[in-house]
What we know:
The protein has three domains: 5-83, no CATH class; 98-203, Phosphatidylinositol 3-kinase Catalytic Subunit, Chain A, domain 4 (2-Layer Sandwich), CATH 3.30.1010.10; 206-380, Phosphatidylinositol 3-kinase Catalytic Subunit, Chain A, Domain 5 (Orthogonal Bundle), CATH 1.10.1070. Helices cover 48% and strands 13% of the residues. The protein has helices at 5-18, 20-28, 33-36, 39-42, 60-71, 73-83, 135-147, 163-174, 208-211, 217-233, 276-290, 296-307, 315-333, 338-353, 360-380; strands at 31-32, 48-49, 103-106, 114-118, 126-130, 155-159, 176-178, 196-201, 205-207, 239-242, 245-248, 253-256, 261-264. The protein has a six-stranded mixed sheet, sandwiched between helices. A three-stranded antiparallel sheet has the order 9-12-13. Residues 11-68 and 70-88 have low confidence and may be disordered.
Amino acid sequence: MKLNFKKLYPIVLMTLIVQTSAQARLCEEIRPCASTLGGGECYGGKAPICVGDPLGVPGLRATIAGSCQAKGKDEMDLVFSVFRCQLGAKLELGNRRWDLVERKRHSNEGVVGVVFMEKNDPSNNALVVKEHPRSPQALLASRFLQESGFHCPNGMLISKTSDEGRNLFQALEKAQTIPNKRQTLPDLAKKPEVPHLLVMDLLNGGTAKDLNAKFSLGDLREIGRMYVYDLFLNNRDRVFLSSGSKNINLGNIMYDLGTKRVAFIDSDVIPLTAKAEDHYHAISFFLKALTKDDGEEFANEIFWALRGKGTRVTQKQLLAIVDGLRAGIAEIKGLDLSRFAVLIATLREEAAIQGVVFDKRTEEDFILLEGFLRGSQEAFSGE
Length: 383
């Protein structure tokens, strides 16, 4: 049985007017047309729509989705306008309402090319906008890590010259600037060689530099796992072993106050050709180092990198890191590398919808990726 939207409209409208609490709950369940109902066909992925069934209409989500795809945007505009949330809307990747942006600020870490766009009410989240030529590779790495069970922020690519890109820049121009003593706010449009922006959800928390004392044994295990995955991906900007040194960028390890768990930002995957053998040698060195003292000495140095050299570490904390390291190795050995081809295809499809075209360097990296990662996997297997 199909719903008659003309008859449903006055019922929905009156309910939204009278039942403010229902609309507030509706807004909590908000997701964009782009992710749930095929926004490219229905609403251009611009305005959010509320489809959480708070009105008690069974199958409303599926009905709207089917009608949206069948009839197209124009005939559905009236229905979507009824379900659009205006109360307490959060600014997040699933609700990219650039008109909600009230202020902009620079990263407290002084990171170049990153802008935080947010509402004045901090409880309503924010979006991180980054201009970087390696954004497609970074998003690919983040998606892979999410699939592997790590907590990483969601992200997407947006073309600077698309409708949404123009809306983003208009919001930047209107937003109030929050001063930062470390450096001025970057101009996200100044690099014509970077035609896209990486937009991500802002995690509610702090970096390991400030919040490492909150890390649980489970968090330490995840950091151990991530150490292995970063080495596998050749990500050099978080936890990475090279020539025997244990380098940890504490700014890219966070504690998410919302989920109460460790989170990882600024991921990357960097395939190598000329220096690939050096990378594989670093993996072999790492595996050899783990054999000493059952890996506890290696884990101790990782803990000190997190908390400061000489900090007291318990046996349980060391074992948690070692367990994470060994779990990561086992996972990499059994990894199906065809996952990357699927992830790249999905990323390419999403990028095309947003008008993003990958540059020559990105395409070259994606071509080299499978061979490079196969070499890394073989190195972890001792082959």
